[in-house]
Amino acid sequence: MALATRPPESDLWIARPDAGVEWNPHTIHTHYFGFSVPEASIGAFLYVRWMPAFPLVQGGVVLFQGLENVHTTDNLHQDYQMTMPWPEVQDGAFQTANGLRIEVLEPGRRFRVSYDSGDGAASFDTIHEAVTPLLARGHIVPGEEGHHGSGKVAVTGGSEQFMHATGTLRLGDEQHAIDSHYPRDRSWGQVREERRGGPRPMPPVGWTPMYFGEDLIFNQISFEHPDSDPAWKGLFEFPEGAPTHHYAWVVEGGETKGITRVRREAQEYHPQLDVVTRQTVEAEAEDGTVYRFRGEAIAAANVPAWPNASFRDTVYRWEDEQGRVAHSTYQELWYDRYQHARTAERRAKAIA
């Protein structure tokens, strides 16, 4: 069964409420791009979060290297602001006040993403070209769907697409070539609340996009399987037999297929960041094909994207069953109940 796609013009859906119309203040639109330089263990989180009810934007650039980025100020280069003016969009291009520029060269297909810190510390110039269809998705965080149809929100939707990112990254006197396959995603009209605990109690949710070549591209977002002894065991209720994923797909040999089952198991967690740093993923497609992957983080960072959540971005090295290697982002998000439990566990071990 073919998966739904979004029209190319959805890349420019950045609506604001009409005069006299009230939207939920947590309504957001987003643009996410990324890239990595695996040989240097460098990752990039590039994000714009539009908040049309105000209107303002937040976001910017987070560059990180290695696995020791426990604090946001540990990151290699972070230029991320929480309150910036709503940018003017001209001919499909816009730039945030802190210098992140996104140009829609061909909607649904081709983008230029660039940045210059202005002080010589960091800059990059990249072209992102689509290698998959612009696939439709609804929401990214479980629980957000409860706000859909509330009457105080814009038209709601989202999209995901794998891109081939090429260009150059400069860090002071260093220069790195960029040549990576990375996902991008968008949300529009989603209500992503910032209240304590998130939209509902839930385990950490993890996103594992992978590109092994035109013949195998995989993507899913899920919880660790409840019978795999996850670190969240005992903290959250999980109905027996319920699916652990809420969005997943695979492109194999040019055919896009939905995923019916995901089993994600963590073998290792970062000792301070708590993000999963070694894991396996098994997924079954709607035609019965089973895929298995194993991965390990080579870089990880604490990213200040959401004030009510712990959010981690990483660069993962993935292998498929044939031993082919892919490098991509793995992102994980959780709320205070889980973080408090992990912190208490560390304290107890330290006392013992």
Alpha-beta content class: mainly beta
Helix content: under 10%
User: What are the segments in which pLDDT stays under 50 over at least 5 consecutive residues?
Assistant: none
- Proportion of β residues? over 45%
Q: What is Rg?
A: 19 Å
> How many H/I helical runs?
1
Number of self-contained structural domains: 1
Calculate the mean pLDDT score and round it: 94
Number of beta-strand segments: 20
**Element pattern in H and E:** EEEEEEEEEEEEEEEEEEEEH
Pfam family, one: DUF7064
Organism: Patulibacter brassicae
GO molecular function: kinase activity
Keywords: Kinase, Transferase
State the main characteristics.
352 residues; mainly beta; eleven-stranded antiparallel β-sheet; eight-stranded antiparallel β-barrel; 1 helix; 51% strand
Structure description:
One of its GO terms (molecular function) is kinase activity. It holds the Pfam family DUF7064. Keywords: Kinase, Transferase. The chain has one helix and 20 strands. It is mainly β and 352 residues long. It has one domain. Strands 1, 2, 3, 4, 5, 6, 7, 8, 9, 10 and 11 form an eleven-stranded antiparallel sheet that branches. A hairpin with a 6-residue loop joins strand 16 and strand 17. The longest helix has 16 residues, at 336-351. The mean pLDDT is 94.
Sum this structure up briefly:
The protein has 352 residues and is mainly beta. Helix content is 5%, strand content 51%. The chain has one domain.
List the SSEs and their pairings.
Layout: E1 27-37, E2 42-51, E3 56-65, E4 77-84, E5 93-95, E6 101-106, E7 110-116, E8 122-130, E9 135-137, E10 157-171, E11 174-191, E12 205-207, E13 210-213, E14 216-222, E15 245-252, E16 255-269, E17 276-285, E18 290-302, E19 310-319, E20 325-334, H1 336-351
